[in-house]
What does this fold into?
Amino acid sequence: MDEKELISSAKKGDHRSFAVLFRDHYPLLVKYLMKVTLNPDTAEELAQATMAKCVEKIHLFNGNSKFSSWLISVATNLYIDHHRKKKREREWNEGEAASRKLQWHVESRNEEWTDALAALSKLTEEMRIPLILKHYYGYSYDEIGEILNIATGTAKSRVHHGLLAVRKELKVDEKSKRGLAST
Amino acid sequence: MKNQKGVSPAHEQLDKDFLETISAINNGLEKLDSIDAYTPDVKWFEQMVLNQQEIQKKKYRREFGWFFLSALLILSAVLFTLLELPQIFFILQAAAVAVTVFFSYKGVQKQVDGR
It folds into this structure.
């Protein structure tokens, strides 16, 4: 069965079709949430909550976008709600610890926790999510606006400010100024 | 000073730096993609969906029960007042019409002010 047929029978309540759809998209969903939350535990927790939400709301999926895009949209909104519910300070402390855990995961694979990842972890989710959706997943500003329920211009501005913030953390501007001054 | 493309060296450097920043971000994120995420088997997903569908059914039954009870209560009250206390019934009807007209008017006024 292809994706359209699976979605069609899932809409009729077939749990097997739902299961196949979820199994096929689970790695993408968890990895997307891991990048956005920078917290492996929250990523898995939200992936399960996303699937539960999708079972409830499958009748709202109109098939205009890919199923993966719809999952990402549901997951993003759940993450934003989840984030709002937590107190700022507590979230910050947990966020620090969680990204350290992810850092340990990366380093245990003999990979380096890059400065760019450290810079991303310091961004607010308001900037991090559009930046990742735009430059890693290749979504257009219109699509990002739809996913986050914001205007296209706002999505564009958040991506731009996110990039500027990362550059500031990486001290790219200082380096390039020094480079230009030396030439 | 601008080059042949009409771009100043400072802007050219800025564009290059933006691309470098994006590339640095993507390289970092690719490392996260290389972490193995455990995917449960299809049976686990089936069970999860069945559990969720069961929760939804229970929720639907509970909501329908509350709706039915509320409707029954309201209808009983209306029929009781109509048959036993007709004056109160007509006062309630008049109050309902007045409240509807008042809030509709308020809504229109807000829309006009909004423009």
